[in-house]
Amino acid sequence: MDARKFRALVVEERADGAFTRTVRDRYVSDLPAGEVLIRVEYSSLNYKDALSASGNRGVTRSYPHTPGIDAAGIVIESSVESVCPGASVIVTSYDLGMNTPGGFGQYIRVPSGWVVPLPAGLTLKESMILGTAGLTAGLSVLRLMDVVSPGQGPVLVTGATGGVGSVAVAILARLGYEVVAVSGKPDAEPYLQGLGAREVIGRDQLVDQGAKPLLKVRWAGVIDTVGGGMLAAAIKSTQPGGVVTCCGNVASAELNLTVYPFILRGITLAGIDSQGCPMNLRQKVWAKLADAWKFDEMETLCHVSTLEELSGHIEAMLQGQLKGRILVDLID
Question: Do 106 and 5 form a contact (C-beta atoms < 8 A)?
């Protein structure tokens, strides 16, 4: 038995079917087999974590469980030459925090193929201010840049106060795009303008209440993080030849559309998958996030949380009350 002890958030199912969250001591020997043992210094809270921490079986099959799909820290042990003890590394997505104990614990053990070296230009803390949200936003921006250049017209970002949306707004603004941010939060305008949004609009200014197959052209491109009616309206109002990226379904997984935006305007709907993203593309985006895409407003994106405070932030996320990112500090 490995007697090294560490703290972790543990989600358990009670006899009555309810789920509880407690911070407790665990042992390194409790972790599953894997090639790389990492001492986690920072993690971050994502919507998938909130679902896992609430007993969602579509995310996590069995409990007790420690969520946290993001982790950044120091390699303590490695059985492969490609990952060296002492290295600073990032692990996001794959199965981390879903069915493998995740970043809401001070140690994780994972396959070497999940490990990304921390790029020069980022600290471990900064990497988790970004986390999966930053990777997803970066993948979305990269796809949009294939088609849309700054100066071609406004780029819409939906769910703009969320993690992915906030990072996307900041990156696009840094790259010179005219960003229009959508938010349902009445006090969001100063925050989003501080990240570089040229204009902030409410959801009611976007969602199409009718059944028209096409709407007036408004956007050169779109980064959508919510799905549902806002995604449909964004597609209907994107300029000919434009691209709309899609990475979320918090509003709805349904998409009520005709084919007309695609066959009459040549719109491209591009799905973004950060969980199964190939390693070469993953490293390319992290390198850009550490250099050309790194923005000065990063610290304004996050609120720092301890493990003990995390349960309250999980509830706030589920109720749609959070702005930006929750950074989880696991350093003793």
Answer: no
Q: Calculate mean pLDDT across residues 265-291.
A: 96
The predicted pLDDT at position 33 comes to 93
CA trace torsion 236, 146, 160, 46 (10° rounding): 120
State how far the Cα of 183 lies from the Cα of 156, in Å rounded to an integer.
11
**Residue reference for tokens 């007309």:** 260
Average pLDDT of span 92-115: 97
Of the candidates 26, 37, 45, 40, the residue with the CA atom closest to the CA atom of residue 332: 40
Strands 5-13 and 19-27: antiparallel
Dist CA 243 CA 284 (whole Å): 21
**What's the mean per-residue pLDDT of the chain?**
95
Q: Could you identify the residue written with the tokens 């973004």? A: 272
- DSSP strands (E only) in 52-195: 70-78, 88-92, 107-110, 116-117, 155-157, 179-182
| Distance (Å, whole) CA 184 – CA 200 | 10
**What does pTM read for this prediction?**
0.94
Residue 209: pLDDT band (50, 70, 90) is: low
Structure tokens at 50: 């909130």
Measured between alpha carbons, how far is 158 from 167 in angstroms, rounded to an integer?
12
Structure tokens, 101: 């104990």
- Please state the φ and ψ torsions of residue 114, each to the nearest 5 degrees: -90, -10
Is it the case that residue 1 has pLDDT exceeding 70?
Answer: no
Tokens of 200: 């902030």
- State the residue for tokens 């543990």: 10
DSSP string, 236-256: HTEEEEEEEEE---SSBS---
**DSSP secondary structure letter of residue 65:** B
In tens, the pLDDT along 255-267 reads 999 999 999 999 9
